[in-house]
């Protein structure tokens, strides 16, 4: 089945990748800072950063000429991972160690300093989304196989509803 989630995980699904992006969202840009902050092996960090640059998540920008050194800046594509990182943070706060020990990091509005409570909302209606209020359907880029999958799911959903009703 063609799947945007699988395609995204092909780029960011490797171990360490989300933590590298997280640190970049916090403002880390230089190789040594990523390495020290994450405690990641240099060869692993080199491979991940190379892959992220190739995928267009980061741009390499020279910050020193002799010796030549680069920093890694998030591209528009990389910055677009912000809501996913925040979603993972919120999930970890709710179900990870933070659920007992307290949140290790809070988010606040940069303009006024007020705490932010992130939520996934529909941009058209402003309505907060939850699992029970949405369903997945085939999109315009769906292959025939993907369309059949979603038709099968819709049929099973409708059949289950008819059987469950008195």
Summarize the structure.
With 166 residues, this protein is mainly alpha-helical. It has 8 helices and 2 strands.
Structure, described:
This protein has 166 residues and is mainly α. The protein has two domains: 4-101, Arc Repressor Mutant, subunit A; 135-164. Helices cover 50% and strands 8% of the residues. The chain contains eight helices and two strands, in the order H-H-H-H-E-E-H-H-H-H. The radius of gyration is 21 Å and the shape is globular. The two termini are 35 Å apart. The mean pLDDT is 91.
CATH superfamily of the largest domain: Winged helix-like DNA-binding domain superfamily/Winged helix DNA-binding domain
CATH topology group of the largest domain:
Arc Repressor Mutant, subunit A
Mean pLDDT value = 91
| Percentage beta strand | 5-15%
Biggest sheet descriptor:
2 strands, antiparallel
Count of the separate structural domains: 2
Molecular shape: globular
Alpha plus pi helix count = 8
Share of helix, binned: 40-55%
Keywords:
166 residues; mainly alpha; Arc Repressor Mutant, subunit A; 2 domains; two-stranded antiparallel sheet; 8 helices; 2 strands
